[in-house]
Amino acid sequence: MGDICHEGIVRSVNGNRLTVEIVSKSMCASCHAKGACSASDMKIKEIDVVAEGNETYAAGEKVNLVISHGNGLKAVLFSYIFPLAILMFLLLYLQSAKVSEPVSALVGAGSVAAYYLLLFLFRKKIDSKIHFKVEKLTH
């Protein structure tokens, strides 16, 4: 499978560390009728990237952020699939154990919060395994 690419703009440079701003759009954001619809969704995200090689970058420069398909899938698993599985397992288990719904909801939400806290604490280790590459745009 191919790589996943996003065009972005370098916002800051600190040695070989770049902060790149990308615009994440839903399909609605590019629709011609988005002004008349409240479903359009566009978010600006900042991604920290370590530039590899001898390339130099400047603030304001347009670049491509590239992540391999496998790393993209890992990121989706860690950020969405695993917490959803934890939540669903706990809710189903606690309901079958006849625990009240409010307590089940609190335990499920707390467990997902603890999972995200663990991700935050291990972010440097995860960052070393799942990372973006930056490429200069050629146009």
Structural features:
3 helices; 5 strands; extended; alpha+beta; 139 residues; 28% strand; 5-stranded antiparallel β-sheet; single chain
Tell me about this structure.
The chain has one domain. It is built from 3 helices and 5 strands, in the order E-E-E-E-H-H-H-E. The protein has helices at residues 69-96, 101-121, 123-129, and strands at residues 4-14, 17-25, 42-50, 62-67, 133-136. The longest helix is centred in the middle third of the chain and has 28 residues, at 69-96. The model has no long low-confidence stretch (mean pLDDT 85).
Radius of gyration using CA atoms only: 20 Å
Low-confidence segments, given as residue ranges, are none
Share of helix, binned: 40-55%
> Please, how many helices?
3
User: By helix and strand content, what is the structural category?
Assistant: alpha+beta
Number of strands: 5
H/E series, N to C? EEEEHHHE
Numbering strands along the chain, what is their spatial order in the largest sheet?
A: 3-2-1-4-5
Provide a quick synopsis of the model:
It is built from three helices and five strands, in the order ββββαααβ. It is an alpha+beta fold and 139 residues long.
Write the layout of secondary structure elements.
Blueprint: E1 4-14, E2 17-25, E3 42-50, E4 62-67, H1 69-96, H2 101-121, H3 123-129, E5 133-136
Antiparallel strand pairs: 1-2, 1-4, 2-3, 4-5
Helix pairs in contact: 1-2
